[in-house]
Amino acid sequence: MKETLAPKDIIKSGLCIGCGSCVAQNKALEARMEFDPYGQLKPKGSRQFLQTPSSQFTLTCPFSPAAKNENELAAERYPAAPHTDGYIGRFTQSYIGYVATGGFRMQGSSGGMVSWVAAELMRRGLIDGVAHVVPADPEKDGRFFKFRISRSLEAINQGAQSRYYPIDMSEILEEIRQVPGRYAIVGIPCFIKAVHLLRREDPVLQERIVYTLGLFCGHMKSARFVESFAWQMDVPIEDVTQVAYRTKHPERPANWYNARLTLKDGSSVNKDWWHLADGDWGAGYFMNPACNFCDDVVGETADISFGDAWIEPYASDSGGNNVVVIRHALVQQMIEEGIAHGDLHLTPVDAATVVQTQAAGFRQRREGMAYRLSWGNKGVQPIKRLPPDALTPTRNRKLIYRMRYWISEGSHRFFHLARKTGKPNIYIKWARMAAAMYHALAYQRGKLGKLVQKLKLTDA
Ligand SMILES: Cc1cc2nc3c(=O)[nH]c(=O)nc-3n(C[C@H](O)[C@H](O)[C@H](O)COP(=O)(O)OP(=O)(O)OC[C@H]3O[C@@H](n4cnc5c(N)ncnc54)[C@H](O)[C@@H]3O)c2cc1C
Ligand code: SF4
Ligand code: SF4
């Protein structure tokens, strides 16, 4: 094994995504997950826990350079998968579509497939519980969302919708270890990777976590994103009881995101993302720094993974459409039966189509990540499936990758300053200025965009 690491090494190197795996393994050492000053969940605990290097940690932290990578984990779990693609990994079949039965599609963020698969696994008696993310009580829990194990179909439905909010698995992993049963876990790719790494070392988790449901992932936001919503909707964050990142409207395309905050008095406020200073997802506001060094967009180690079909005609369909990639033979059979019974409206698509639905994400996390690797990292050097590469990206692409990096870093710092001084405008004005610069560079928009063209900073 390469150098043996401790949690502190990963945290200090900006590589901690806050999955909670190390905390789940060290409850006895006062280990716990807490928000840092930038609204990101990080491990806390005794010096012994944080600073003692161990081979167990080095093998199980998803950002440890010595941990098995996504290709190795997928090869172990899906040796018989008939197809392999450089972007989506091993798979049996991929589809685009939605759930045609019950309220799954309407309640879901996309086509409702995650909740349907979780519910179907339970209905068929294949699992006893699903670990997924549900709303929390901000007053009691000090956060808007948390992982929970749902043990009924009704509880699974309560969890529908995407949460771009820091959550961690420390408590549910502990619960799975304590309470015998068969469990499915829903998670973003790095969390599913963490689960597999832990399963390799822990026979109890190996036996009890029987299915993994992956979400495609662009990046993870900090908890400050919700506070920024509140500032920009003119409501005190203390009054917010519930957060919906994406609400559906029958007359609007699925990709016109509208965020809604529910308040203590039962009223609600909402705003379209494009009216928010930080509402351009691609610009990378509030992104966890670890996401700079992640190359798994589609959850390559999950039994089945789900994203949004961001290509036409699906993106304009107000109901929402999933893109689905299957890797597990039994899940494949379940999906085929769902289609045959008319419960699922899914059309088979090839790997290239899946990649097309996530084109921007793959640019940022493959070409962009290789470019960022070429800068080196302070502390632990991540080892990824791609080598560092500063030669391939064009000048315009390099500027865009640098701008996103700068926006992510700046959003944490300017928000922190604005929060500390009680002056939201410090952040909001900076965020608008950063968006104008990003849009000029990426889309040649506005007066700045003309300047970008004049200076020949575009690819054309
Ligand atoms: C941080 C994040 C980034 C994403 N980025 C992309 C992207 O770039 N491209 C893309 O196509 N799709 C992305 N997705 C996935 C997308 O938003 C939808 O979640 C996915 O298409 C499933 O929709 P659905 O209607 O099938 O799910 P639903 O039926 O609405 O069910 C969603 C399920 O996911 C669980 N869940 C919600 N948030 C989390 C979370 N943070 N961690 C674990 N479980 C959770 C819920 O509890 C629920 O069980 C992202 C999701 C997240 C959480
Ligand atoms: S990424 Fe997960 S396992 Fe690694 S240090 Fe952070 S919380 Fe611990
Ligand atoms: S981009 Fe990668 S590291 Fe970041 S949250 Fe998504 S899966 Fe995790």
From TrEMBL:
Annotated Coenzyme F420 hydrogenase/dehydrogenase beta subunit N-terminal domain residues:
96-173
> InterPro entries annotated for this entry?
Co_F420_Hydgase/DH_bsu_N, FRHB/FDHB/HCAR-like, FrhB_FdhB_C
Tell me the ranges covered by the Coenzyme F420 hydrogenase/dehydrogenase beta subunit C-terminal domain, including all copies: 182-350
Q: Which domain of life is it from?
A: Bacteria
User: Which is a Pfam family this sequence falls into?
Assistant: FrhB_FdhB_C
Any keyword Isomerase? no
User: GO MF terms on file?
Assistant: iron-sulfur cluster binding; metal ion binding; oxidoreductase activity, acting on CH or CH2 groups, with an iron-sulfur protein as acceptor
Q: Which cofactor does it need?
A: FAD
Q: Which UniProt keywords apply?
A: Iron, Iron-sulfur, Metal-binding, Oxidoreductase
Record's protein name: Coenzyme F420-reducing hydrogenase, beta subunit
